[in-house]
Amino acid sequence: MTSIASFSYAVCAAAFALLAVLLLTRWRARPQSRVLAGACLLSALWGATIAFQASGHPDLAKWSNTLGILRSAGWSAVLILLIGNYRKQGSPLPWSLSPTLALAAALYLAFAIGTAAGAWDISSLIEGGFLPTVAARVGIAVLGMLLVEQLYRNKPLQERWAIKFACLGIGGMFAYDFYLYSDTMLFRQINPDIWAARGIVNALTVPLLA
User: Does the global pTM surpass 0.85?
Assistant: First the structure.
């Protein structure tokens, strides 16, 4: 399983790195290309870190978990940007977020910092009754799926064809995370098969995003 997981996440890292390069070079003039490239780079770093972790570096676990949170935040930012109406009303600053989104960004950041510091490590809390860190990851996955649903529903019918593959790709990533962490909450342990396959599943979304 170690070699399978390493290969799975290495393929994921390579696929997202390639997409990021394409977005920053050939497709750099397209709308939202920089934000998409940023999310792809986070996914590539996340996949590469887990690949090294699975190949015999368990000390990288907290960094892979932290990058996983940042990766989810990056794809959530892509969805919010595509939905629109994310700026604070009346603010002249283009980067000023609405209060709700500013709070969500702060929670993402706090969760990432806490994970990097080892305060919310999955392995240390897996035997707890409430599994707070796993529950938070389930919540992040649900939020991502809700954003995908809102993006698709809020677009006019004639525009939906242009985003359907992106919705399938990003929605697939969040749906698989929901499956993984829901199974973890149910059985009080991470299923190694589901965890190892996540890299390949994420890599399969790259053609849809491209």
Answer: yes
